[in-house]
Each structure stands twice: as structure tokens, then as C-alpha cells.
Design a protein that fits this description.
heterodimer; A: alpha/beta; Oxidized Rhodanese, domain 1; five-stranded parallel β-sheet; 5 strands; B: alpha/beta; Glutaredoxin; five-stranded mixed β-sheet; two-stranded antiparallel ribbon; 5 helices; globular
Chain lengths: ~170, ~170
């Protein structure tokens, strides 16, 4: 028998991934985030999140400011699939990754529109986006969004048919 | 709190829609298809060839040291290897870490009792894209894929499947 039996499939967060109304998902995150540890992605305020659908619309819209998109996950995942035009920084769960991120943005105006994303794991288990968001906030960046990826980059981006690229 | 969240999400069922699309990205190998073969270096530097385990039930587990669900799952996999290894189970870990050092440290920390190879983007694509971890492929004694598990899977589910495959003629 071939099955995709999956513990996460049974969790509320996984169930949320099946639905595409961003407001519903963000509301669920807001409720669930209350009891989460401060280092987890779920501790990122919902006002700082952007959904995949919203980002795709933004990238496709003409005349709107395009964000600097930074992938803060592993290189193996990035080289398999990433958002076209995004830059690889490295996992910001490590201090070296955070340093790379600081180095990349240090010369940018603090109003620069930046989107951080990872997608290595289910949202509540991503070790990378929160440290990256914290680092940018500490540097004074005021226009930062974190891409909300419920399950992983494959399920919530590539499988949706959103723009994706392979390679370095 | 969870109940409220489920209720909110449940409301979203009314607006659920499925998108179909074509993609430049590989699709995952299907059930009953041969598991794509590979030769990859183990943490000790020696090569491991997947097809050399033909005749055993193989659980191919894609993981990484930074993956929190993988940390939860690994002790269960160690138990399964210990329990069913003599009956023909072979778990093979495929680390998707960017370098071997953190994978090696994880291996030692958890006292892993099954081989771990260093995977790469090519390996991921061979298995339909490993764009989130963990992902496990259960392979029967003939080398055919029996099941795919995305995310930290309920250990009882995996154990039941393994036991079934081990008993198969």
C-alpha cells in the first residue's frame, strides 16, 4: 500500500496547510503562538508574516517595490528549489548564518523591503526564520516580512506551482 | 486553544480548493516502483550502494541535524533498528546537512545504530525533491517502494508497516 501517512497531517497546523485563505491560517497561528517558545517561528508576530499567495501576487504585480528575498535554510534545499531571484545566506539557526545575514544587509537602507524564508520544516519547527527576523529587527530594519510556510517549501510553494528555480 | 484553532481552520474547508499544475520539478517515485539507486559516502568515508541491501526491508530516512522533528524521530528509528535488525530491517539515514561535521556530531550524540550517508541535491531530486524534512521511504525486500512518509511519522504506523513487510514472503 502506498500512503503518505503523516503525523503532521493530523495536527491543526497541518490541516491549516490544506486551506488557502490567508486570514484563517494567520488567525490559527496567532492562537497557537501564545504558548510557543520565543525562539520558534510561531513566536514571530503575525503582522510580520506574508503568505505564499500574497508574495506571488506581489512578485507578479507591476509597479510595486520588489523585496530582497533571502533564503535562510540549508544549501541542499536551496539548490533543489528556491524562489527565483532570492539569495542564499545559510541556516540562521547558527551564529555563522546570522553573521552572513548581517553582512549581507549591513549597507542597505533600514527601510529596504526584505522577505525572509526557509521552508525546511513545518512552521512550528523551523529553527531558522526567527533568528533571522530577530537579527534584522535588531539592526533596525522596519520593512521585513517572513514567508509563512506551513509544512515545507515543497508542499507550500513548489507543489502549488509557484515560481521556483533550481541550482545555485 | 487547539480546539479553537481547529474550529477556525475547519471553517476554511468551505474555501478549500485544489490546484493542479505541471512542474519542472521531479515527481516522487511511485508505489511499487524500484527505489532509485545511488552510491553515496557514509560518515566514515566508505561508499554505500542502496541496491546492495536488496533482500532486506529498507527504511530510507532523509534527515538533517538542524531538523527538530528529526531529533524526535531518531530515537524511534534506533529502537526499530535494534528490534527488527535481525529479522531483515535496515534503516539508512540520508543526511541533507550541507556538510558532514554536524551530521557526524548528531550521529555520535544519538548513538545511531544504522549507516548514514551524505545526501545532496541530486539525491533529493532522485526521490522527487526532498524539500522539507524528515521524509522516509519504506522499501520492500525486492527494492520496490512501499510507502512514503512526510514529516515526523507516528512510530507505531511505521513499525506496523515494517512488521508487515518483514513477514511478506
Amino acid at each position: 500500500m502506498y500512503s503518505d501517512n503523516d503525523f503532521w497531517m493530523k495536527s491543526p497546523m497541518r490541516i491549516a496547510a490544506k486551506y488557502q485563505k490567508s486570514t484563517i491560517i494567520l488567525a490559527a497561528i496567532a492562537i497557537l503562538s501564545v504558548a510557543q517558545a520565543p525562539g520558534q517561528a510561531t513566536a514571530i508576530p503575525t503582522t510580520r508574516l506574508i503568505n505564499p499567495e500574497e508574495l506571488v501576487k506581489l512578485l507578479e504585480a507591476s509597479g510595486k517595490e520588489k523585496p530582497l528575498m533571502i533564503q535562510v535554510g540549508s544549501h541542499v534545499l536551496f539548490s533543489q528549489a528556491h524562489i527565483p531571484g532570492s539569495e542564499y545566506i545559510g541556516p540562521t539557526s547558527s551564529e555563522s548564518g546570522v553573521q552572513q545575514l548581517r553582512k549581507r544587509v549591513e549597507s542597505l537602507p533600514r527601510t529596504k523591503f526584505i522577505v525572509l524564508y526557509c521552508g525546511c520544516c513545518p512552521w512550528g519547527h523551523c529553527p531558522n526564520v526567527k533568528p533571522a527576523d530577530d537579527a534584522l529587527r535588531a539592526l533596525g530594519f522596519s520593512n521585513v516580512k517572513v514567508l509563512y510556510i506551513a509544512d515545507n517549501f515543497g508542499v507550500n510553494w513548489v507543489d502549488k506551482g509557484y515560481p521556483a528555480a533550481k541550482g545555485e | 486553544m487547539l480546539i479553537v484553532a481547529v474550529a477556525i481552520v475547519g471553517t476554511g474547508a468551505a474555501v478549500y480548493s485544489v490546484r493542479h499544475h505541471t512542474s519542472q520539478f521531479a515527481t516522487s517515485p511511485s508505489a511499487n516502483h524500484m527505489a532509485p539507486d545511488f552510491i553515496l559516502p557514509q560518515l566514515d568515508g566508505q561508499d554505500l550502494r542502496l541496491s546492495s541491501y536488496r533482500g532486506k526491508v529498507v527504511l530510507l530516512d532523509f534527515w538533517a541535524s538542524w531538523c527538530e522533528p528529526c531529533r524526535v524521530e531518531t530515537p524511534h528509528l534506533i529502537e526499530l533498528q535494534q528490534k527488527y535488525g535481525d529479522r531483515g530491517l535496515q534503516i539508512i539515514g540520508v543526511s541533507m546537512d550541507d556538510s558532514a561535521d554536524p551530521a557526524r556530531a548528531f550521529y555520535q550524540q544519538f548513538h545511531m545504530n544504522y549507516p548514514v550517508v551524505m545526501g545532496n541535491a541530486k539525491t533529493g531530486e532522485l526521490y522527487g525533491g526532498v524539500l522539507g524534512l524528515p521524509i522516509g521511504f519504506l522499501i520492500n525486500r525486492d527494492g520496490r517502494i512501499h510507502a512514503k512518509h512526510i514529516g515526523a511519522t507516528d512510530p507505531a504506523v511505521v513499525e506496523k508497516e515494517i512488521a508487515t513487510l518483514l513477514q511478506a514472503p
